[in-house]
Amino acid sequence: MLFNSYAFIFAFLPVVLAGYFVLGRIGVVGLTKIWLIAASCFFYGWWSVPFLGLLLASIAFNYWCGQAIRHLAHAERAPVRLMLTLAIVTNVSVLAWFKYASFIVDNLRAVTDLDLAVGTIVLPLAISFYTFQQIAYLIDCSRRQVAEHGFLDYALFVTFYPQLIAGPILHHSEMMPQFHRSQHRFRHEDFAAGVAFFVIGLVKKVVLADTVSALVDPVFRSDAGASYGCLEAWIAVLGASVRIYFDFSGYSDMAVGLARMLGIRLPYNFNSPYQATSIIDFWRRWHITLSRFLRDYVYVPLGGNRRGAGRRYLNLMATMLLGGLWHGAGWTFVVWGGLHGLYLLINHAWQATQRRLAGTAWALHLPRWAGRLLTLAAVLVAWVFFHAASFEQALAVLGAMAGLNGGEPLLHGWVFAELARGGRAEVDMQARLLALGLGIAIVLFAPNTQTMIDGRATLAAAGRPAAWLAWRPSAAWAGVLMLAFLLTLTQMSKVKAFIYFQF
Predict the structure, then answer these.
(1) Which residues lie below 8 Å from residue 249, measured CB to CB, with a gap of 6+?
(2) I want to staple 40 with a disulfide (CB 3.0 to 4.6 A). Which of 161, 258, 264, 347 is the partner?
(3) d(Cα 437, Cα 431) in Å, to the nearest integer?
């Protein structure tokens, strides 16, 4: 079930909210937990009942492993390491089978010429997210960092429907204490803030991301050998960058809003990443909970920065390559991760050099605008590989962006063909280009959703014109959000899944 669907908004959500608050008035916390777990299972099972069984089996297995590890934690470390290793290997093996089996077999067949094949494998919904979330939990159990909890708390931690499909990747310490609260009552300010988060996220997804996607698909879904004009390649890459941000951050905003309606706070997952002044800054702002996971459960265990600069750079590259592969079973995703790993190495090396040169005539400080421009350029190049179906297509798009398009005119492409057709086609293309321009302006200059809703003091301190964007539970804001919501309803006749929907 998708957040941007009539079934979710007008059927599932009202029933879940009503049941939650009615049970909350009774005052039995266990009932509200059971209600949310049942609702979350229904939400997941709407897509596939058999894979709901896999999710429940994963929860039961990891809860049992976590309890066993916690009980062993006071004994010798060897049994703990053995149990933890078996649990992680099992989780990774299940994920690898569904997500990477075909990729591995295809590469083995290409290298060895053996007649290897696997049948069609359907990727279970959200398996990448709930696997990482539970691996983090198991590692923390081995570190004695998990407080006492029951099975209901753990099951709700994994299945909680606002974040189940596409994150954010939750940490047990920030969620389970919230499930322990003695009362689950309706709170007007939380509910109003939740509605604001949800509507703004819905607008991001439906009005901006889905509209801009029509500028992306003609290039990135075309034949690998196709040629592109310079301008159409730039439009497609800028559109892809805007689309993935508004699609994913829109989902994250909706997830935060849905949880806030229940009085539960999820971590923010995006913090204006295209306003970053360096690649290091970018990864503190983009998919924040994934960055946290990779840092705490991959980079630090590999040694982090504790074993010298050379080992630190090796650890960074290994972490980013794994992050790239986590995003998809393809070499283009590995290259995307590798590029960001290389960017991070250069960024850290630059900072180290500037620290050594501080106070000398050789010290060089880039202006803030230059850092933002350089970061955006690096991110755009990497996005080409992320979205491309093959290396050939990625190189063709990059070549077109550089003007090396094999003699194709710079203003060649489907954009101008659509504008020249006139009528409805011209209007649709103008709307898409307008959405792209608006999206670029928002990601580069506007405050993000959490700043608007939860950072009222920050915007007020900034003065005009930022202060008027600060949300408050008022009639004026209610009217604005209602109009925005009605606008999205007119665009939801063709429901488009999130980029990370089946992931």
Answers:
(1) 201, 204, 269, 270, 448, 449
(2) 161
(3) 10
Whether the CA torsion 355, 360, 362, 366 is positive or negative: it is positive
Chain segment 120-139, per-residue pLDDT in tens = 788 888 899 999 999 999 99
pLDDT of residue 193: 94
Residue 156 falls in which region: left (phi positive, over 0), alpha (psi -120 to 50) or beta: alpha
Name the active-site residue from 171, 172, 184, 327. 327
Instruction: In whole angstroms, give the CA distance from residue 213 to residue 199.
Output: 20
Note whether 471 and 456 are within 8 A (CB). Answer: yes
Give dist(CA 3, CA 164) in Å, integer: 12
Structure tokens at 385: 């590989």
258-281: per-residue pLDDT in tens? 999 999 999 999 999 999 999 999
Whole-number Cα distances in Å, 342 to 37, 269, 346, 373, 496 = 42, 23, 6, 18, 34
CA distance 214 to 454: 33
170 neighbors 157 (Cβ within 8 angstroms)? yes
- Tens of pLDDT, residues 430-465: 888 999 999 999 999 999 999 999 886 666 665 556
Q: Compute φ and ψ for 126, nearest 5 degrees.
A: 70, 10
Measure the CA–CA gap between 18 and 467, rounded to whole angstroms.
35
Angle at Cα 115 formed by Cα 110 and Cα 119, nearest 5°? Answer: 95
Residues in Cβ contact with 289 at an 8 Å cutoff, skipping those fewer than 6 apart? 167, 168, 169, 170, 171, 267, 269
Work out the burial of residue 400: count CB atoms within 10 Å of its CB; fewer than 13 is exposed, 13-18 middle, 19 or more buried: buried
Summarised one tens digit per residue, pLDDT across range 82-113 is 999 999 999 999 999 998 888 888 888 877 77
Residues 6+ apart with CB under 8 A from 178: 264, 265
